[in-house]
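Q: Got a minute? One more chain.
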Amino acid sequence: MHADFSRKEKRLMWPSYRSSTRRVKLAGSNVLHLIFLLLALASSVDGATNQEIKVGALVAFNWENQGNWPPHYGAILGAAEEYVRNRAIVRGNTGPDYDLKVEPLDDGCVPKDGIIAVVKAMNTSTSERVKGFIGPGCSEVCKNTAYIASKEGFDVPMISYACTLDNLSNKKEYSTFARTVGSAGSNAAPVIRIIKYMRWERVGIIYRSLGLYEEAAANLKSDIETELDKDEESKELFPEGFKVVCFKVWYYNTNDEGSEQMKNKTAEDIRKECKDEVRVFIILGYDADVIDFLRLAFHDESFPFTETAFITLEVTVSTVTEETKDYTRGLISLVPKSPENDIFINLTESVRKEKNDTDIKLDIFSATLFDSLLTYAYAASKILKNHNDDINKVYNGTLMAQVISDQTDKLEFEGASGHVQFDKNADRVASTDIFQAQITDGTINMFPIFKTDTNGSIVRTDRQLQWNDGTDVIPQACGEDRELCTEPDIQKTILMVVLPIGVLLLVIAAVILIFLMWRSKVQRLQDRCLWKIRSIDVEFKDAAAQSGRYGWVTTATYQIYV
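A: Always. Here it is, folded:
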């Protein structure tokens, strides 16, 4: 599993090895040369007897039956071990050199499995116990394992290569945690840069129903709305204001029975609700989730796919394939393609050699996995030099996190993922390049459309944009004719709504008034006639007398002539 990065570097490290290859004549007075040769050979194998520091690597052996994650983790970690050993990175002042021995531990991208793996690795004899952890890669696992690692009785270093959950920056809760990637919150700035450049006055956010994505979605929505509300440039770009519309959760749990039907149904519901609101979507979820959503939308004839732009934080160059190119073309991703520096090139070649496959492509997380072990090694070296070669200090997770996050004596180095440095929370200082999936000569690949310059500003590259319809015409957030953002005309609203109501009220008032006038006239007529009754106008028709309780009563029927 160990990969040989450079035999030349070995020879440069151990000059005694070069001396041992000299030709020596084994005769007479040259016995001394033989003795020198034996001593040189003995010293040349000192590296093989270096003391070892055992580190556990939390990876997914067979994540959701989709294969190992990160892919080829064994070959990557083997290459990282070799890199550390060849350069004698873990070295104190006068003490011995140390090699890192990595033991892969299966966390399955499942919190429960991650906790079991950590506890088992720590609950062994002192000699077999791991002295720190590389990983995990899944934020849901990080949240639990990092909490355990920081508690009293454990206090071991944990350096993740892919967890982006914002809460992990809280050093009161996760005092031994560090990571070779930035937090999810660091994605707000590049998203805002894209929105401004494209002049998108509204976006939709769709997120997977998992705690980490629910939190990331809420934070991202708050960050971009707050920034674009107070920013003077934004007020000029969006005079009518910026807003997030169609903030939808995608209920999709791969562990539930019938989850495939649920995934398809909820995705369909989101498309129906959102297609009349916006044409730009940010999708938060695992890369497989993003690809699924795009695939379903692409095959939905009622959804204007070619008029819509999609942004994601997860899809890497290894995910965009020939099988997915019809619906990933034009996708903007904030997960950059790994830099083509010498370390990354050597790592790729080493993995290809180990796996006997020249077509292997490594993504950014392969590089950050490699760099997480380098971070442990460089931090361990600083601790040894600052604490009189006390190896037990290296195993102190709180101390290692402090060394990694130190802003005075900064820990920084060149790794497979580029220049690695950390902020005060031991989070990787993000230097985001924004990529777009484009097809050239029939092949899809990721190309940088924005890059971070030396001042930390995100600037546009000279790479032409290419959207799903194959053109460079930027999709409009409000639709091609701004039909989704057109507000109804006030005057038309008055004519169409207020005026009919007013006319109806007038008619009702007129009817009531006429009725009252008629009733008043009748009443006046009755009152006038009542005072004109005369005796001669009364004609008695019949008369009868009957005995009553109080005597005889006479009744008469009469008619009045008016």
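A: The two ends are 125 Å apart (CA to CA).
Q: Perfect, thanks.
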